[in-house]
Amino acid sequence: MVVHNEMEKLGFNPKDVVLGEVLLEEELSDEQKEKVRAAIEPLGFELIDDRKSRIIEKIKNVIIDLVHRKNSHLQTNLSDMLSEELNHDYSYLSNLFSEVEGTTIEKYFIAQKIEKVKELLVYDELSLSEIAYRLNYSSVAYLSNQFKRVTGLTPGHFKQIREIKRKPLDEV
Q1: How far is residue 62's CA from residue 86's CA, in Å, rounded to a whole number?
Q2: Phi/psi of residue 149, nearest 5 degrees
Q3: Do residues 98 and 34 touch, judged by C-beta distance below 8 A?
Q4: Residues 149, 146: Cα–Cα separation, whole Å
């Protein structure tokens, strides 16, 4: 909504604005791109206009949406989903992602899942077994091992550390 409003303020009429992408009727000149960049960067957004960067951002957006909004419930495997969503062969997407980001799509996906696990542990509303189920892990043990491999801590230890650091509001 913020990006849509900024585009309209600049005199552009966006057809559609979805997570990470603005669809315009006409191609922007370099001068217009700079105006857009200057308007959106102070708001925490960045203008990405080369094809490879757009594909990388789409990959990230699909994974973020899957992990943080759809709770990792895949009807198919990640590679098939990305290929279908982005209309590219998975090997092309995988090689491009690794080349540009310096990590694999799988490691990025795991990192997003671990961030979601941390968030759910901090909220303290679900058991580890419920978190494992919600994020489509085959078992609590697999989740715990992956969490420890990525963070260096067990989920229980992470939760303890978070509780130690946090003070009740009346003690602040």
Answers
A1: 9
A2: -60, -40
A3: no
A4: 5
Alpha carbon 120 to its chain centroid, in Å, reads: 16
Alpha carbon distances (Å) from 98 to 17, 63, 95, 109, 147: 27, 15, 5, 13, 22
Q: From residue 10, give the alpha-carbon distance in Å to each of 5, 16, 35, 38, 148.
A: 9, 16, 8, 11, 48
Position 169 confidence tier, pLDDT thresholds 50, 70, 90: very low
Long-range contacts, stretch 150-154, CB < 8 angstroms, 24+ apart:
150/110, 150/111, 150/114, 151/114, 151/118
Share of the chain above pLDDT 70, in %: 87
- Topology of domain 51-172 in CATH is Arc Repressor Mutant, subunit A (1.10.10)
Q: Tokens 């609590």 label which residue?
A: 140
Least confident of 23-27, 61-65, 93-97, 138-142: 23-27
| pLDDT tens figures, 66-85 | 888 876 666 668 999 999 99
- 78-86 and 51-68 are packed helices; what angle lies between their axes, rounded to 10 degrees? 130
